[in-house]
Design goal:
The chain is of the alpha+beta class. It folds into two domains: 157 residues, Jelly Rolls (Sandwich); 166 residues, GAF domain (Beta-Lactamase). It is built from eight helices and 13 strands. A five-stranded antiparallel sheet has the order 10-9-13-12-11, with helices on both faces.
Length: 329
């Protein structure tokens, strides 16, 4: 009975795929901004959404383009980035299945403020601005509820951006404080544990070329050095954007001893010109599913700052050694 009622809202164009239509409804049910809508309203919405596929690297919309549609990630991953200059872009967010983006199209007719790119082969559900506004005219109460949910999405993203900006600023202040590298690492880790409340512990390892080991400059007591041959090192080096494991069984390596009590893990490599200078790990020892892509991006931004600090301190030490040699001659 319900199925038949829903099918009344589908486009009868001769190529109608009943299975795909019902799958759209299930996807809409899983997205929190549509939760609570009755079956008939979900059917009306599902009939308006179109499925679109994008190959990895394909631009979905560009910064400055007209904001005329809203998207749900059905499969794959989408990166949201903003251009810094002619050569560089900053990744602002990474969206996985169930994520929504492009919602500002429903609040203003202004151009896109960032670029959306398929990071992998990606399938999206898309609804145009005009189609959505037509739905609101037909079902104003449901439309207001959806718009309120989308506004909450935008506010949450603004909060995440603010948190990242504050953390990056404070990290920069710590790096410029003149402390030793170990002091900087410990202070930055404290800042990270504050900025990522779901992380209850952390460790930062930096490569020591004299010992040929990754040393724990900030870590739980008793944490041992890690050799370059350890699987965690290869995994960190091969994932420049970081690793989110919301269940340690999903880690691409056997957990090191320092991670033995972790249930959710977030790891970001400290990279400089593709060289692995170390890595930062934070974890939650109580729950699975503690971290998301916004946490990964924040950790990655701080790891980039640490990489610069490690290189600068190394160059300063080399310069001091040269001066000592020159003075001793």
């Amino acid at each position: 009975m319900i199925r038949n009622r829903l099918l009344r809202f589908a486009r009868n164009d001769g190529n109608f795929d009943t299975k795909k239509f019902m799958e759209k409804i299930e996807i809409l049910k899983s997205v929190f901004v549509f939760q609570g809508l009755d079956e008939s309203l979900l059917g009306q919405l599902a009939a308006q959404f179109k499925e679109t596929c994008f190959a990895a690297g394909k631009i979905i919309f560009a910064e400055g383009a007209a904001a005329d549609a809203f998207y749900i990630v059905e499969a794959g991953e989408v990166g949201i980035s903003k251009r810094i200059d002619a050569q560089r872009e900053k990744l602002l967010a990474a969206m996985g299945p169930g994520s929504v983006f492009g919602e500002m199209a429903f609040f203003a007719a202004s151009p896109r403020t960032a670029t959306a790119t398929a990071r992998t082969g990606t399938v999206l559900l898309t609804i145009g601005r005009e189609d959505f506004m037509g739905f609101i005219v037909r079902a104003p109460d449901a439309g207001i509820r959806i718009l309120s949910g989308l506004l909450q999405v935008s506010m949450d993203r603004l909060e995440q951006t603010s948190r990242e900006l504050v953390t990056v600023y404070r990290t920069g202040t710590i790096i410029a404080s003149g402390q030793t590298l170990a002091g900087i690492i410990r202070a930055v880790q404290d800042e990270l544990l504050f900025a990522i409340p779901r992380a209850d512990s952390g460790a930062t390892f930096i490569y020591n070329e004299f010992n040929d080991e990754y040393e724990p400059l900030a870590a739980p007591e008793g944490t041992a050095e890690i050799p370059p041959s350890a699987p965690i090192i290869a995994s960190a080096a091969s994932e420049p954007s970081g690793i989110v494991a919301n269940d340690t069984s999903a880690l691409p390596f056997a957990p090191e001893k320092f991670l033995s009590g972790a249930r959710s893990v977030l790891i970001s490599p400290v990279l400089k010109s593709s060289r692995l200078l170390g890595f930062i790990a934070v974890w939650n020892s109580k729950i699975t599913g503690a971290f998301n892509n916004s946490h990964r991006l924040l950790l990655s931004a701080v790891a980039g700052q640490i990489a610069e600090a490690v290189e600068n301190i190394k160059h300063q030490e080399e310069e001091r050694n040269r001066m000592r040699l020159k003075t001793g001659k």
